[in-house]
């Protein structure tokens, strides 16, 4: 599986994590300096266009970052071809499932 | 192609290698990364549950009062804190900041200790909210 490799993967992993860092910092500031969100606040945020997009971007950036990281770990420690392929396939399936679930949860809000 | 495959460095028996503080920060970065990947489906599930109804939203928040969930939250908090701090340390080193041995060792100590302190603080806070409720 050569979904992103070499320098392109390296750059993608760092660019995606910068987005994660910015969004985590924003979320952290919100939780630190404003009262804890009620259910209504949370619904209002997740069903607004900007809220849904930010959450989807957050999970998407994590998924890309995690794919490159998991690929590095698998290639370093697993040497058997079949096992490598099986674990990478499992990771890819989990990441796609996570993104599907997130998008459906957010989409259900807006619909 | 075959030649580079044969001469490429292979990863080694981890138990036969000595681990200086930088290596602990580094392997901790990998371990926490794998942990976070395993926890990612839980985050997606929590997002979905939190949006289902107000009762589900409250039930989700109330989970932290249970001691086992407190421990799981503390482990995930350690993973997030360590992965973030060690990752920022690596990013700074990519930029040429703090890559001299003394600074690198000091920042590795900081990462290892700070992540553990965060995990402990979160554990205490969760257990405390369990006792208080």
Detailed description of the structure:
The complex is a heterodimer of chains A (111) and B (133). With 111 residues, chain A is mostly helical. In chain A, 86% of the residues lie in helices and 0% in strands. Chain A contains four helices and no strands. The longest helix of chain A is centred in the C-terminal third of the chain and has 30 residues, at 81-110. The radius of gyration of chain A is 17 Å and the shape is elongated. The N and C termini of chain A lie far apart (36 Å). The longest helix of chain B has 32 residues, at 21-52. Chain B has helices at 2-7, 21-52, 54-62, 67-94, 101-132. Chain B is mostly helical and 133 residues long. Chain B is built from five helices and no strands. In chain B, helix 2 packs parallel to helix 5 (101-132) and helix 4 runs antiparallel to helix 5 (101-132).
Low-confidence stretches of chain B: none
- What coarse outline of chain A follows from CA principal-axis ratios? elongated
- Helix share, percent of chain A: over 70%
Let me know the number of strands of chain B.
Answer: 0
Largest sheet of chain B: none
Structural category of chain B: mainly alpha
Biggest interface, and residues per chain? A-B, 31 and 24 residues
**What is the helix/strand order of chain A?**
HHHH
Q: Total helix count of chain A?
A: 4
Shape of chain B: elongated
Quaternary state of this entry equals heterodimer
Radius of gyration based on Cα positions of chain B: 19 Å
Mean of residue pLDDT values of chain B = 88
What attributes characterize this protein structure?
heterodimer, A: 111 residues, mainly alpha, 4 helices, elongated, B: 133 residues, 5 helices
């Amino acid at each position: 599986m050569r979904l992103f490799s070499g320098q392109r993967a390296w750059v993608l992993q760092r660019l995606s994590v910068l987005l994660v860092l910015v969004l985590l910092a924003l979320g952290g500031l919100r939780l630190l300096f404003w009262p804890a969100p009620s259910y209504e606040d949370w619904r209002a945020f997740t069903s607004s266009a900007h809220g849904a997009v930010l959450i989807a971007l957050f999970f998407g950036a994590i998924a890309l970052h995690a794919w490159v990281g998991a690929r590095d770990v698998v290639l370093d420690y697993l040497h058997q071809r079949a096992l490598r392929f099986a674990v990478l396939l499992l990771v890819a399936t989990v990441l796609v499932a996570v993104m599907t679930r997130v998008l459906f949860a957010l989409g259900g809000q807006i619909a | 192609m075959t030649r580079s495959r044969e001469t490429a460095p292979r990863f080694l028996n981890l138990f036969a290698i000595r681990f200086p503080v930088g290596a602990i920060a580094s392997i901790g970065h990998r371990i926490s990364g794998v942990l976070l990947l395993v926890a990612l489906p839980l985050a997606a599930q929590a997002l979905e549950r939190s949006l289902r109804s107000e009762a589900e939203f409250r039930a989700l928040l109330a989970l932290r009062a249970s001691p086992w969930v407190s421990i799981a939250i503390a482990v995930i908090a350690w993973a997030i804190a360590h992965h973030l701090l060690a990752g920022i340390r690596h990013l700074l080193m990519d930029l040429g900041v703090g890559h001299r041995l003394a600074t690198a060792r000091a920042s590795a100590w900081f990462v290892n200790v700070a992540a553990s302190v965060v995990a402990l603080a979160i554990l205490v806070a969760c257990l405390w909210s369990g006792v208080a409720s």
